[in-house]
Amino acid sequence: MRPAVPHGRNRCATRRDPRWCVHAPARRAQAARRSNRWLGTFNYENFKTIVEDDVIIIAQIESPRGIDNADAIAADDMVAAMGIGPFDLSAKLGLCYEPGHPTLLAAWDAIHTPAKNAGKSMWAIGDAKILHDRGLRFICIGEPMVMLENVARGLVEQLQSR
Questions:
Q1: Is the dihedral of CA 65, 71, 74, 76 positive or negative?
Q2: Nearest to 127 by CA among 162, 154, 100, 157
Q3: Residues 33, 39, 41, 47, Cα dihedral to 10°
Q4: Structural domains of the chain sorted by starting position, each given as residue range(s) with its CATH number in brackets
Q5: What secondary structure does DSSP assign to 19-44, as a single string?
Q6: What is the number of other CB atoms lying within 10 angstroms of the CB of residue 87?
Q7: Contact 123, 139 (CB under 8 A)
Q8: In whole angstroms, what is the distance from residue 10 CA to residue 22 CA?
Q9: What is the DSSP letter of 10?
Q10: What angle do CA 120, 50, 23 make, to 5 degrees?
Q11: How far apart are CA 3 and CA 126, in angstroms?
Q12: pLDDT for residue 147
């Protein structure tokens, strides 16, 4: 996870690795901080309504290190949902994206379980039926052009089979 919202206190999920930091919006007590002075008449309530109320942070896990810290990341109150980067994660696990590989399935569980325990959803991209069967309800079924290509390919195959 990379810094998502500028200006404000620094909350690190691992408390040691700055690459895992989220920069939370400034709180009322910090409204006078140097980073907010450029705003002139900074008003926290307006900021909260206009920006903060609509910000969600999805911690997408793409490495073994992320898996090792999944409990702490899921427990952080700044995180709205957990995510898995299945392609990057599988590559870092030494796999060439084999969706049913036991190592990758164990990694899924190591991310999904802390998310469930923290009362948070888990996000993933992939085959909607497989993801639904794995218990996910926050699913990205694909990029629109890829989806269109798949539908077009299916239609061509149907026409060719006649």
A1: negative
A2: 100
A3: -90
A4: 1-55 (no CATH), 56-162 (3.20.20.60)
A5: GGEEEPPPPGGGTTSGGGGGGSS--H
A6: 14
A7: yes
A8: 6
A9: E
A10: 55
A11: 25
A12: 75
pLDDT confidence of residue 11: 39
Classify residue 37 as exposed, middle or buried by CB count within 10 Å of its CB (0-12, 13-18, 19+): exposed
> What are the structure tokens assigned to 83, written together?
């995510």
- CA dist., res. 9 & res. 54, Å (int): 18
Tokens standing for 132? 């639904």
Residues 66-111: pLDDT tens digits?
Answer: 999 999 999 998 899 999 988 889 999 999 878 789 999 999 999 9
Which tens digits make up the pLDDT trace of 124-141? 887 788 888 888 888 887
Exposure of 19 by Cβ count < 10 A (0-12 exposed, 13-18 middle, 19+ buried)? Answer: exposed
Q: Hunting for tokens 């690459």 — which residue is that?
A: 19
Q: How many residues does the chain have?
A: 162
